[in-house]
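As a warm-up, study this chain.
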Amino acid sequence: MPGKIEARLAELKIELPKAAAPVANYVPVVIAGKTAYTSGQVTVLNGEFKYIGKLGKEFTVEDGQKAARLCGLNVIAQVKAAIGDLDKVKRVLKLTCFVNSVSEFTDQPKVANGVSDLMVEVFGDAGKHARSAVGVNVLPLNVACEVEAIFELE
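Now compare it with the structure written out below.
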């Protein structure tokens, strides 16, 4: 029988991507006590990189929100791979959203809403979190967005 969060994902018709293997010398998730820290997750969907380019140049705010959401799906997939059962997530504590953007672009918070909205959709009130949205000059492989997260576990 699927857990509450798995049932919610099915109800929302959200399919998690396959958790990506690390591409360098790090692990995707570190668990310390009842806290899970994810490494930054980028805009990859089952091995294929999406949203390559900058906000304010190749992408609109709406595109950026979709990119941030994809990063969030990858975050959730990594947490699921690490803890097995997403019902063990007590709370989403903090998200940091890095937005690859031109210097004139100032809508990073709107882009980050793509991942913030996802966390509330999936985890309900437990998905409400603290957040930082940061504009950067470039991200690995020139992806549009990268998200890292901190979760409280049961």
